[in-house]
Write a structure and sequence with these properties.
Oligomer: single chain
Largest sheet: 3 strands, antiparallel
Number of helices: 14
CATH superfamily of the largest domain: Citrate Synthase, domain 1
Strand content: under 5%
Helix content: 40-55%
Shape: globular
Bound molecules: coenzyme A
Strand order of the largest sheet: 1-2-3
Number of domains: 2
Mean pLDDT: 96
């Protein structure tokens, strides 16, 4: 029988990957060979996607991918009327799970990847608009993916909203063996299809310890309201046994490098004269949270993670907090699909073991 159980699998390496590298000690993230600092604002969603999917059979240029995504968004829009009750779900991740599960699972890896990426954006926007009592907005097949996602949510996209969301989608596109990516790889390792892998990954991303945190981060900022009361509010949370959303990370022992990228994107908006209503408060709350967490866990650095500034950026872009987790899925879906392809090429079933602690037959 095994002596110990790696219950959170920390430190266990389950795959070689050429997609991204998370260096938790130095706080560095490389995606498709680029430092994350050099992605947002430098690469379009389609360019990064074409790089992450570069080994998928049938891979095309970023420009062809842009057109293919546009065609598939238009296709997904026509599917809306066949999704039944899926988009009525009050939670956006439940809606995405139910809607994406209805896509046909046959097709080449490339075609399914384009279809799933396009449909995730279309279904996210349609779900949110329905929630608000608004009709869905038809996608523009000629537009870039990020720009069209803003337009499908809010109506015609302004340049700053489109480029802000593009920075976000690119920044969260892939992140090593995170829980949802691992879920997708486990499903792919059984020989199952990409639709099933993405639906499973959506379920993993939904949880507040993974992708469910940015909405609650904004709720926290609203509840705190003023920097002067941040420390006291946060201490009360810890005393009540609750975690501070947007703080801490399984791998990073530094500030999450993506938090810095997204914070800079909010600063850019501010310099360009756009409203960034919660930036100052967020910075004060981040400092206070670092302090109270340092006092409580002096040996465990707990700093801001990607979700903290996701909330501030998406809010500053005028995007609704209920859609934050589905928007995370809109970016991460390209990473899941790249990992599904990579995992398939290993041909290896992922199948760990458990230690039996139940009763034994007499
Ligand atoms: N607030 C308060 N305490 C926290 C904390 C947080 N955000 N993150 C970790 N801790 C505490 C844990 O309670 C634990 O304390 P204990 O040893 O007294 O039980 C200690 O720090 C170590 O945490 P651990 O549970 O080992 O961390 P993990 O690697 O399993 O967790 C997260 C990583 C992300 C799940 C965790 O930091 C967290 O829950 N953060 C808040 C949710 C969030 O922001 N999620 C988005 C992640 S990108």
């Amino acid at each position: 029988m095994a002596d110990s159980v790696a219950s959170g699998l920390e430190g266990v390496v389950v795959a070689d990957t050429a997609l991204s590298e998370v260096d938790g000690e130095r706080g560095r993230l490389v995606i498709a060979g680029h430092d994350v600092e050099h992605l947002g604002g430098w690469r379009t969603f389609e360019e990064l996607c074409a790089e992450l999917w570069g080994s998928v059979p049938g891979a095309t240029s970023a420009e062809e991918l842009r057109l293919a995504l546009g065609r598939e968004r238009a296709w997904a829009f026509e599917e809306l009327e066949w999704l039944g009750r899926a988009l009525i779900a009050p939670d956006g991740m439940d809606a995405l799970r139910g809607a994406l599960a209805q896509l046909p699972a046959e097709g080449s890896a490339w075609d399914l990847g384009v279809r799933l990426t396009a449909a995730t954006a279309v279904f996210t926007a349609a779900w949110w608009r329905r929630r608000e009592g608004l009709p869905p907005l038809r996608p523009d097949p000629e537009a870039g993916h990020a720009e069209d996602l803003v337009s499908m949510l809010r109506g015609k996209a302004t340049t700053h909203r489109a480029s802000g969301l593009e920075t976000y989608l690119v920044t969260v596109s892939d992140h090593g063996m995170n829980a949802s990516t691992f879920t997708a790889r486990v499903i792919a390792s059984t020989g199952s299809d990409a639709v099933s892998a993405v639906v499973g990954a959506i379920g993993a991303l939904k949880g507040p310890l993974h992708g469910g945190a940015p909405g609650p981060v904004l709720d926290m900022l609203d509840a705190i309201g003023r920097p002067e009361v941040a420390a006291e509010w946060l201490e009360r949370e810890l005393l009540a046994g609750r975690r501070i959303m947007g703080m801490g990370h399984r791998v990073y022992r530094t500030r999450d490098p993506r938090a810095a990228v997204l914070e800079r994107a909010v600063e850019r908006l501010e310099k360009e004269g756009h409203r960034t209503p919660r930036l100052d408060l967020a910075r004060a709350v981040e400092r206070a949270a670092e302090d109270v967490l340092r006092r409580k866990h002096p040996d465990r650095p707990l700093r801001a993670n990607v979700e903290f500034y996701t909330a501030v950026l998406l809010d500053a872009l005028g995007l609704p907090r209920e859609a934050f987790s589905p928007l995370f899925a809109c970016g991460r879906v390209v990473g899941w699909l790249a990992h599904v392809d990579e995992q398939r090429r290993t041909g290896r079933l992922i199948r760990p073991e458990s230690r039996y602690v139940g009763p034994r037959p007499g």
